[in-house]
Amino acid sequence: MTNPVPMAEVWRGDFLESVHHGHAVICDDSGQIVEAWGDPEIVVLPRSSSKMIQALPLVESGAADAYRLWEEHLALACASHNAAAIHTDRVQAWLDHIGRGEDDFRCGAQEPRDIEMRDALIRAGQQPCQIHNNCSGKHTGFLTLTKHLGAGPDYVDFDHPVQQACLEAFEDVCGEPSPGHVIDGCSAPNFAVSLHGMARAMAYFASAEDRSGVRAEAAARLRKAMVAYPELVAGEGRACTELMRAMGGRVALKTGAEAFFIAIIPERKLGVALKVTDGSTRGAECAIAAILVKLGLLDPNHPATLKRMNAPIRNWRAIDTGIIRPAAGFC
Amino acid sequence: MTNPVPMAEVWRGDFLESVHHGHAVICDDSGQIVEAWGDPEIVVLPRSSSKMIQALPLVESGAADAYRLWEEHLALACASHNAAAIHTDRVQAWLDHIGRGEDDFRCGAQEPRDIEMRDALIRAGQQPCQIHNNCSGKHTGFLTLTKHLGAGPDYVDFDHPVQQACLEAFEDVCGEPSPGHVIDGCSAPNFAVSLHGMARAMAYFASAEDRSGVRAEAAARLRKAMVAYPELVAGEGRACTELMRAMGGRVALKTGAEAFFIAIIPERKLGVALKVTDGSTRGAECAIAAILVKLGLLDPNHPATLKRMNAPIRNWRAIDTGIIRPAAGFC
């Protein structure tokens, strides 16, 4: 096993205060590694970075078309959203459309990350509900597929037809069996895989148009939905949203809990998977930006880039006290 | 330089998902290292873990007695508090008492960590102010000393008499010159030091009764204030507060930003300083708890201990999905 490499450094004044190490793989459409940092075969939990894979059965089963879902619904199915009104209004309408309600969810209630929505709830004396869960789009996709299949209500059970369909799709696009699964923050199963396998899956999405069959067609639709609606995949101010916009739709991006990040690059037919070993999101955001700059896809001087890979650390009086930047020698 | 060692592991199901590495030193009252992990001579920024040192000039100058400060004020001067009412009411009263106001602060406004206070502000349509800054106790101490010295209003300037007094005290108790300073989150200078030097300073506080002079007397008073008012040093639910309570006042604890932690152990005349290299608070809390258990000071089965070093990771539906625990082989 190869040790993780330094990916991001946190400087305060002239002092290196903190360091983030990680593993990353760039994979081509044949499944071969183009470049790697650290250990490409390390077993990882891709968490929410696997949402576009978990959405494949929704599309390839015909459920998405049977329920006349739009591209924005597919983007929400792949989202870890802020629970701003643009997200929750669409999730509520989608639930209504399929004849399901908030109490059919199994994701749990979560305080909105969107400050306007959070404060509106507090002022109204209301508790956050499951629609505010950052995964509520994925779960509405699960509910849609559940109804389409006529399956039971406990759609997050590992043995449920929805999750078994997700597992089959996951192992197929990763090109390897999953060594096991865990329970994610939203109670859905999350499947383990090698980092290489996850990058291979992202290369599958990147090269979907070269492949045949309903799965490849579904992968292309989901990837296009993500870049068409970057604000639905995460939200204003977030890395996925801002960096996808900065690249003008050329690359699909998705973060995951515990510092996971993926990139799907159709024009090069490449997939990227990245894990910062300490679970720090700021480290993963800096590292994925550095890789995208190295690949010539992201402008190093774009404000969205500078916010992640040369990010000033401002204190409570907005004084610049330090910077987050790629580690020396990484990318 | 010795590499940092694995200190804490984050497991999800059967998979090791994230790891935190760090450096730590236990130092005795002669300044010698009793035990160390990683590199004891690494230069660190102790951040808020140095607040009891930054409060020394307030006491040793005579300002604390001139203004008849109580033990609870000294605890607040060492605090990174939640901005609950127990903290903000006392800071406001202390400001009134010294004839100063919120606009004399230089710490900046910060949203309260205390949810009740945060929500009350939002419902009232009020913005957080500088009194809600987690460092407002330290800054009231700075203002008290500033007034006592008849010094100028910009008390966070490195050249200000208050900060120069802090630096002199810092280098004295650390037993080594500081290689430089940075600007902290609250805009005060924060002095760099070796991890060994910081542990030596904590051993100074632990053995203050064996020493003579106003500085040693001030150190003993501040240490006693911290353990007498654990709820003022941090707040309900926080590691410093809960672990100090769990040890019944035998040990003073203080966290700092970017995963710093210290312990002051009077009965053994020991000081502990710890830095998790990735800046993750959960890692530092797990590691300091593990060291305190190893030293026989903290009950491994106390709920406050279990919350840090065998902490269940519960998801949005309160399902146990994983655990944070000390790394194999650490302590």
UniProtKB/TrEMBL annotation, chains A, B:
InterPro entries with a match to the protein in the record: Asparaginase_II, Beta-lactam/transpept-like
Domain of life: Bacteria
PANTHER family linked: L-ASPARAGINASE, PUTATIVE (AFU_ORTHOLOGUE AFUA_3G11890)-RELATED
Pfam families: Asparaginase_II
Protein name (database record): Asparaginase
